[in-house]
Amino acid sequence: MLIPIPRVCDGVFDCSDLSDECMCSHPLPVCGAIQLRNINLHCDVGQMSCGDRKCIARHQVCDGVVDCMDYRDERSDEVGCVGRFYCGTVGGKMVSIKDVYVCDQIFHCVDQSDEMNCTDDNRFYCVNKDPLFVQSYQVMNNRLDCSDGSDECPDDLTERYMGMVSSNYDIIASPVLRVFLWIFGIIATVGNLAVIVGELRSIPASLRKGYSASLRTNHILVLNLAISDLIMGVYLIVLGSMGIKYGGKFCAHAKHWMGSGTCQALGVMVFVSTETSVMIMVTLTAFRLYAVYKPLKSKFRPPVGVALSIVSFIWIISIVAALIPAMPPLQRFFTDTVLMESPFFRHGDVSFAIAKTFVLKLLTFDPAAVNLTTVQVNMARTATSWDDLESIKFATKHGVDLQDMQYYSGFYNANSVCTPKLFVTSQETGWAYPIVTAAFNFTAFVFVASSYVIIYVKARRYAMHFDISSPRVMLQHRAMQRKIIRLIVTDFCCWVPISITVFVRFSGIEVPDIMYAVSAVVLLPLNSALNPILYSDFVDGIQTKVHRKFAESASSLYRRSRTLSLRPSITVETNL
Prior knowledge:
The protein is mostly helical. 52% of the residues lie in helices and 5% in strands. It is built from 16 helices and nine strands.
């Protein structure tokens, strides 16, 4: 066989006996393993011996397929295969492939190692490698393309979604806050249940003759306060349970969770619990203040019917106010972000400002848009709500449909713990709701705190005026002082930080993300966990029992010590 000179020693075998490449001054490494002359009785010229009397043809050497039992036909140290990528697993049939097949998005190696660590095409590797990778356009497209959902949770892109409270793995990122969640949840649930049972036993007795109206009203209000705070305890327990359910995999289910009816229901529970609790505390304080200034009239006022009417009104107001942001016709007025199926939005999460800009540009610059009028363009330019955008009827070749939107980030599902959206700016939708709520709660705190200060001062002046200085009266004054301090401090710790933070954020100052988590897990549940202790006789009863036990123990110890000290003298007298 004759071949042109340029094809000699060019790295490609053309002659059947390999002489065009193996007789060169610098032969290929594989030439050392190929039988060039018929010196081996069991292998023909151009074949390779596997060492076990098996011979293979030259095209089977370095072809990626194992033909020799000891892998010598594919081992680089034996035959010097060049331009090959060796797969990570040598147990498979294909042990190496040509370099050109690496990172071509087709699996050639059994272990898929030829498609690992490829960075040029911006692919995304699934955490659990099922599948090994997805395309870059599939990342954060609101579909779980990776079986573990990790394509929706890349570490470098999810901070704006998960940064406030949660992480890629947990509903509440901080382990410390997760502990507080369960502590407050258990205390609020157990404590308020205990108060409810106690008040239900006390109310029938208080309705009999001989009990003042103020005492009856106090029992009714404390009972309803415990019920409202119990709702917060249930919320904390449910949230903690959901945290266990989604533990280690939350990001993949984050949007589903925050857009779910369960999250909306939890948010409504938080609003009802907090606002009912605030209004009942204000009512309790007002009646106690009335009893201080009108002690005689407070024995007969307010009647039980009036107290029940006030409580019913409080519950109705709280429930209606909580349901308004969750009602489908009104929900859009509290929504900042929607999920929209469109090729123009990579992540599917579209804020109102972005959607408005997009619609305006589409109507203005897209020549394929039909049935356009100046009125429609002006409507897009002056739109201030999702209703305004949805009312614009137009069609383009891109098939953009503003009617197909899922409301996602609203008043109750702006964060993973489903609390009302507290910290807003004037540019956000529905900003008036949290501002009015925060102003009301702050005003309520000022009223409660100032009222209890007035109650204490009034009681102290009364004692000084009548020169009441008996030990029993002084103990009562000190007990009242401690109780008032506890009430004011706990209300201050709960509402003042939240209210101030709301006003600071509304003024345009950035608020650390941790404040949302602390507010949701610590500050809001604080009163619910402590109110059973503060507004019932729970603490006072415990203190009374402790003091009685301590006094009894001290008295018993004193008598025993006196008996022991007298015993020797009695013995001496007996001997005499």
